[in-house]
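Researcher: First entry.
Model:
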Amino acid sequence: MSEPRSQPSFAIPQRPERRYSRTSGLSYEGTTVFVLMPEPTSDAADPDAWLYDLTERVLDTDRYTYGDWFDLPMPVFLVHDRGTSDVFRVAIRDGRIEFHVLPETDSKGLSALYERLCTAAGGTWHVECRTDADR
């Protein structure tokens, strides 16, 4: 019998503040990022491609509206969880998935996506919370 997976709390210790400037547009002050790393690490030839496919497969369910509208060197999705009404960013890089908290993000949406990723991947994940205060 396998050990039950312990659920990370996804408690948000610091919320970013949204700033608007006429010259530089929208920006955020302060960050909270939850970093998810599969255990054991995927043996896929390209772990980021495997994580991208996994994430997109989970986001393609009826629960989510998402898009990758950013021209960046890595995948960054803006995600809306219709079940919890949460909005947050999801990034994939260096063999990990990152949940980037926005000002109105709630722990419920982060936790729900985490559970779906665990179920779809069939494994466990190590989760770390990082904030500006950690730097």
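Researcher: Second entry.
Model:
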Amino acid sequence: MKIRVLVCCDESIMSAAMRALLDQQPDIEVMGFTTGRESAAAVAELAPHVMIVVAPALGFEDKSELAELAALTKIILITKAESAHRSVEALCIGVRAVLAPDSSADDLIHVLRTVSAGATMVMPAAARRTLERLPQQGMSRRSARMAADLTPRESEVMVLLAQGKSNAEVAEKLSVSMATVRSHVHHVLRKLGVGTRAQAVAIAYETGLMAAIGRTAEFRGQEG
């Protein structure tokens, strides 16, 4: 089955370039193009698997619109990442991926396929590196409690989700079934009090949970 893609873009030249790129992919079907103001209606009518949103049609400042779209389909947002926190905010409202405008065509196609397959999230490399450093500045009590509440296997799953792995990739990495992965993901979301994998990853970075998971793993190893 082809990946049904809708593009939200206000710039004609960018839209034409996007059409040319996507039409070359045998597994991708372009459902159409829309603008920011018409995007929700277009998603409801065309039911795409993935929607590529190119700023300034919609951007970080359009949180309510992006949240509405994210409830309907998987969103890839192409915009300049003003800060790592802005990328986290986008993920927290349900956006599946944040890409920089200077990302390569190959990167976009890879992210599109990965998001379609159920990957947790993708963000600019610079933003991710910044987020990975944030927990080193201090680990909150909340993150410590969350890390302790996760089982060792759930912690492994959380780390893989943070790397943007799909269920299939997690299953292969851990040598378990897809059903087992889905069960672990369900438990992780429940324990973190979130509804989506992207939100789980965003919270894991923002609260210092990723660092807490590492410290908990070290402690468990010492106990053993």
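Model: Note on the second entry: The longest helix spans residues 178-192.
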